[in-house]
Amino acid sequence: MNSHNPRIVLSNTYGHPNVGDEAILTSMISVISESIRNVQITVLSRRPRVTEKNHPYVQVIHSGVIKGVLKTLRAIKDADLLIIGGGGIIQDSTSLGNLLFHLSRPLIAWLCRTPFVCYSLGVGPLRTKVARFLVSLILRKAIHITVRDQSSGDLLSQIGIPPRRVRCTADPAFLLKYPKDPLENIMYRKIYRLKQQGKPVVGISLRPFTSTYNLLGHGSYEKNYGKLPDIMVDVSKFLIDEIDANFVFFSMHPEQDDVLGELFLKNIDDPDRSVFVPGSLSPAEMLSAIGLSDLFIGMRLHALIFASMSLVPLIALSYQPKVEGVMKLLGQEDYIVQPPKWNVENLVTMVRKAWDKRISIKSEIGLRIPSLQDNAWEDVESIVSILKNSHRLKK
Predict the structure, then answer these.
(1) Architecture of the domain spanning 7-168
(2) Which residues lie across from 317 on neighbouring strands?
(3) Cys staple from 68: which of 62, 193, 213, 302, with CB 3.0 to 4.6 Å?
(4) Are 122 and 147 a contacting pair, CB within 8 Å?
């Protein structure tokens, strides 16, 4: 390895108040720091103050579209390795511009002769021909590619990246550690008290959604959220009648999900039966809180991952391929509900099925989690091996 301390740059959508992205970053920093001696980690962040507060022992660079460009260029040029991912950043569902922004980092690395790897990526959807062409062109330059689900690997194969160059591993969040004392968190204590009533606790995670994959930050309730919040209220009333359930709404993104949680609980209109968990919790706090659920109905990918890590039976509202991908890795294909079937009748049927089979579901998930965690660790070991040879790769 180089005589100087090894330098790694991490590139993703870091800095946004998204518990899922923060879970990826937290896990990556932890396992890389444990595995590579004296490593210097630089994080490219859209909101550097947020990242600095959460991770005081790493270097943070503001990496906006304009602000911080020169510092980003310098950091990538001087690095021994650039890590793209993890997370679902190779997609054009948000916008083509967003994809171009993320592809610019590996392009810079290639031009600067800095080796880069694609680490536990989520890939897709890629709706446009130009998106497919650019992803194939640039990611071919990676010295190592891993994806977090098979559908991502299949898509890379479809756009021309040889399957032998892509390995399916697992999302880095599967390596996230539980807090030492979860009862220190007030939201955990609230859910714990709810659970002590002896009634089933149903966890729910919703997010803004449109059928065209365009995530709109503003607009009317109907335009942003559709009918799903109202449908979930009707499903919850069924669960009250059927199993006397209590409810916890988990927001994974305060700027997007909090309003959904507030609307949901307002319509449930029973404070003794419900808890709202805002999206301001740390990943470890959210992991332990979601783990108190007896059944989980969710859209957010990392909410589903967190539930699976505590062996909670899952029903996935699959708004993007990544959700279906992780459910397949967990062996839970039978509990995926696609948008055309998001209605009260279908969801009630699925909820009843999952509740009746909850014991076997817990067992099935329990058989999958260790191998997913092993795969995630293998990803880290690959990074260590690559970094040891990075000085040769830069010549």
Answers:
(1) 3-Layer(aba) Sandwich (3.40)
(2) 337
(3) 62
(4) yes
